[in-house]
Write a structure and sequence with these properties.
Layout (H helix, E strand, L loop, with lengths): L3 E8 L7 E8 L27 E2 L5 E6 L2 E2 L6 E10 L7 E5 L28 E4 L7 H4 L1 E2 L11 E5 L3 E3 L6 E7 L6 E6 L7 E9 L6 E4 L2 E3 L3 E6 L7 E10 L4 E3 L3 E4 L10 E6 L20 H10 L6 E4 L10 H10 L1 H4 L4 E3 L3 H4 L19 H6 L12 E5 L2 E5 L11 H12 L7 E6 L9 H6 L12 H6 L4 E4 L5 E8 L2 E2 L6 E3 L5 E6 L17 E5 L3 E7 L4 E8 L5 E8 L2 H5 L14
Parallel strand pairs: 3-10, 5-11, 21-22, 22-23, 25-26, 26-27, 27-31, 30-35
Antiparallel strand pairs: 1-6, 2-7, 2-10, 2-11, 4-6, 6-9, 7-8, 12-13, 13-17, 14-15, 14-18, 16-17, 18-19, 18-20, 21-33, 24-25, 28-29, 28-31, 28-32, 33-34, 34-35
């Protein structure tokens, strides 16, 4: 029987074991396990009942994979060729990738069967796909080439491949830049297989034009595999090069390739400043694996459009629901690999979403199992935010003429709470003469959305969303409030208490009378429908994937653009033009109440 091959890329996660193995499995029955994702859909890994596998190794089925050594040229990912020959092919045959290659389910910790979804995290494959993915004649010929397999119940293991060896499974990978607590700080977080007791992590960095580089020693280690270093006293708007590394016990060094970034302008600095904002992107595999449910169909398009325009982007805000890992740690490694071209070049600031934080009895505001038991730990470990308490994801950050107040919708934000006090302090602290553009953001829609399920509730918002906050947005004259969670795009008029305060739709000037609310949750995950009722405050709605780009030309001119991920073209836009005195002008509920006597 003649062999044919299938190809797919395997990311080389530093947290993996030194070896991988491929399993060829078959089953007579397909079932699906719901993964508790708000709004429907499934975590693809949650479809495989791998813990029910029975052994039926058959010499007539052979699966081989090569090259046997990965990363020999220092690659972060590599294409692997897998050959399948099966004399008893079935439409249900599938291939899974497992790491470590010698894992044993009997060593897995006890499971909380009340909440944890099956299959359990310990036994789940990293990737998978049906054997007939690239060859529809597989069931007749027993030959195939494709990418990886999807899930089924009561699987039968018929063949195990040779193992594949990582040349250096501990190498530093996937750098992630973020603003520090001061405008002249940049943080670098990365993934590594070295424990703190076997190697000292560092970042070698300096101005791009300089020959001499500085070495910044370790600032913090979290969960051994994720490293955080602070680069301080940066000169504004300056290009720096850097690379991560580890000093081993024998004095030798293991280092990454060289990356570069441009430092932030100082607060109020007058220069061209460009910000991208979106939410709910998720991850996808370029080989098509793990995407049987097609849960994040726009993820790669959004990623690729940002990479294509990266020279014209200064900072990115991903406002919640990052990989939708739901407890599968390999999904975080694959997500960080997917966005590495972005995160290694510009600050990648995140907000906390329900799929990062929510879990019953864990302190989250919503008592749902949407995080798969993560409770925010992977998110706050892998991505730095300049919060006072990183378990509480609210923080402020500056970029030149912009001041950002990022709220955490998975913790209570209502009046009288700790977060409410933070939000007011953040909004009140900005000097609008230096930083005219004031932006508020949170994951869930704490403002306005005509999404279908909000429409059924009649409130067109997250329950209790804007009741406490709208008076703060009005008092401090917030320009734009961004939200995710709802997987589409929608823009409102400048609004206060359900009333449009301007008839203009594309060019705003003069006094700040209300806040423009934008839902930008179409980063890549399955789309959300709109209500059949179109509120009078809804100016533009789009059932598609996309993101927003803000461009501040100076202290008086701001350009807003909504771009679709499919082509990167602008489909909605507006401008704001005003002077500092326009921000100071009193409008309804924006200044202290007065009487003739006062």
């Amino acid at each position: 029987m003649e062999e044919t091959a299938f190809h797919f890329p395997v990311k080389v996660p530093a947290t993996s074991s030194t070896v991988l193995v491929f399993w060829l499995l078959c089953s007579a029955n397909l079932t699906f396990v719901q993964a508790g994702i708000h709004g429907g859909g499934e975590q693809a890994l949650a479809k495989i009942d791998i813990y029910k596998t029975t052994l039926a190794l058959d010499g007539s089925a052979v699966i081989t994979a090569y090259p046997r050594t990965l990363g020999s040229l220092g690659e972060d990912s590599e294409w692997i060729t897998v050959n399948i020959v099966n004399e008893k092919p079935s439409a249900d045959d599938w291939v899974g990738v497992f790491s470590p290659a010698n894992f044993n389910a009997s060593t897995c910790p006890p499971q909380d069967e009340q909440w944890q979804e099956t299959p359990y995290i310990c036994t789940a494959p990293i990737k998978y796909k049906y054997a007939n993915h690239s060859n529809q004649e597989y069931t007749e010929t027993g030959k195939s080439y494709f990418e990886i397999s999807c899930g089924l119940s009561n699987p039968i293991l018929v063949s195990v491949s040779n193992t594949l060896q990582f040349l250096n499974p501990k190498a530093p990978l996937y750098p992630r830049l973020a603003h520090g607590k001061s405008w002249d700080e940049m943080t670098v977080t990365w993934t590594s297989g070295y424990n703190i007791d076997e190697a000292v992590p560092f970042v070698e960095w300096g101005k791009k034009a300089c020959v001499v580089h500085l070495r910044e020693q370790l600032a913090g280690v979290i969960l051994d595999s994720y490293i955080l270093v602070f680069l301080k006293d940066l000169w504004p708007n300056t290009v720096y090069t850097y690379r991560m590394g580890h000093i081993l016990s024998d004095g030798s060094c293991v280092q990454s390739k060289v990356f570069s970034f441009k430092s932030s302008p100082y607060p109020g600095q007058d220069s061209l400043q460009r910000v991208v904002i979106f939410g709910d992107m998720g991850k996808a595999e370029r080989d098509g694996s793990n995407e049987y449910s097609d849960y994040q169909p726009g993820s790669l398009n959004t990623t690729d459009q940002l990479i294509k325009d990266l020279d014209n982007i200064d900072v990115v805000f991903h406002i919640g629901d990052l990989p939708y890992a739901n407890g599968y740690i390999s999904q975080w490694d694959q997500f960080t690999a997917q966005v590495q071209p972005i995160t290694s070049t510009v600050p990648y600031m995140i907000a906390s979403g329900n799929h990062e934080r929510d879990w019953p009895n864990s302190g989250s505001f919503y008592d749902t199992p949407d995080s798969g038991g993560e409770c925010g730990v992977p998110a706050e470990t892998m991505y730095y935010v300049p919060a006072e308490n990183r378990a509480k994801f609210w923080y402020s950050t500056d970029y030149g003429m912009f001041h950002f107040c990022i709220a955490d919708s998975e913790h209570d934000w209502r009046e009288g709470t700790e977060q409410y006090k933070f939000i007011e302090k953040c909004l009140a602290s900005v000097d609008r003469q230096k930083q005219p553009w004031l932006i508020f953001s949170a994951h869930r829609v704490l403002g306005y959305s005509s999404n279908s399920w909000y429409g059924l509730e009649g409130s067109f918002e997250e329950p209790m969303g804007r009741e406490s906050l709208q008076k703060l947005w009005q008092k401090y004259r917030v320009d734009i409030a961004f939200f995710g969670h709802v997987h589409n795009y929608e823009r409102t008029c400048p609004i206060y208490q359900n009333q449009c305060v301007s008839k203009e739709k594309h060019h705003y000037s003069g006094t700040v009378n209300g806040t423009i609310h934008v839902v930008v949750g179409g980063g890549g995950s399955h789309l959300s429908g709109f209500s059949s009722v179109i509120p009078n405050w809804s100016i533009y709605r789009d059932y598609d994937f996309g993101f927003v780009k803000l461009t501040a030309f100076d202290h008086s001119s701001l350009l807003f653009e909504y771009k679709k991920s499919s082509d990167g073209k602008v489909y909605d836009s507006f401008t704001i033009s005003r002077d500092y005195r326009d921000v100071l002008a009193c409008v309804h509920d924006s200044c202290p109440a007065t009487t003739l006597a006062t």
